[in-house]
From TrEMBL:
The lineage of its organism: Eukaryota, Metazoa, Ecdysozoa, Arthropoda, Hexapoda. Pathway: Polyol metabolism; myo-inositol biosynthesis; myo-inositol from D-glucose 6-phosphate: step 2/2. This is Inositol-1-monophosphatase. GO terms for biological process: inositol biosynthetic process; phosphatidylinositol phosphate biosynthetic process; signal transduction. Keywords: Hydrolase, Magnesium, Metal-binding. It comes from Drosophila yakuba. It holds the Pfam family Inositol_P.
Amino acid sequence: MGSHLYVMFSKIVYCKSLKCGSYLVHGSQSGSLSIQSQFQREHHWKMSHNVDVEKCLEVASNLVSEAGRLIARNNEQRQDFVCKSNDIDLVTQTDKDVEQLLMDGIRRHFPEHKFIGEEESSGEEGVKKLTDDPTWIIDPVDGTMNFVHAFPHSCISVGLKVNKVTELGLVYNPILEQRFTARRGHGAFYNGRRIHVSGQKELGKALVTSEFGTTRDEAKMKVVHENFEKMARKAHGLRVLGSAALNMSMVALGAADANYEFGIHAWDVCAGDLIVREAGGVVIDPAGGEFDIMSRRVLAAATPELAQEISKVLTQFHPLPRDD
């Protein structure tokens, strides 16, 4: 593997070469192959796509600020909503307006870029396939239930993938003026200040976040309740705040130590994944393998030791259908 440096944490392998910054749970041989493959993906885009990531971040930041003002105005009163897949999976006109504002603004600057948006994906075509093309993955209002009730814990989540590698992420709560940003290889920031995960290694000292999700089928709820009971007994604290993107951002900030969830979608975690990793954290599959953004499963933690401990505790659930 040339000059690559690998540090082993039990079965967790961390690639420290050239800002790869991903933890994978594998045996040493297969882990090395997986990391090599990821390294190749992360650096191939420079040859195959002429993407000015700094310009993309500037455009996205300005659009997110504009969209945030719209959300802040509408948050002053309770919102009318429509149910999507069930009576707790909600969409408001603000969700639709914000997604359209973001997509239209990005298209003006980058007409060749693709999109995977939450509200667009709820139509007849479903979730669009993630390709190697520059693709913006957008949740216009993550935490719509909170937004409907004027509970100030919702946000805009925007990520950009090139060659299936996340290059930038923004999570913005305009109600509380909380802005999290990350660019691959350049660190994570909260309101312009560099941030880092807590470094917590022990579940018994960790504050953990999770969510019920937007489905209430019996099989899933059984797993949710089992895991909540386990975390309530083993973790220092458990919090359910209603926004996957903000939960992951809290891990990056060091305000929470870990976040796990079954049933999320790509738009819930695309930006948060990068923000956590750029803050020095770990993002893996809850069973311990490599994080797959289309799997609808995520475990983010401050350290590989904490991620591994939580993975061993969790009852597993595999939501269907996947996002791909």
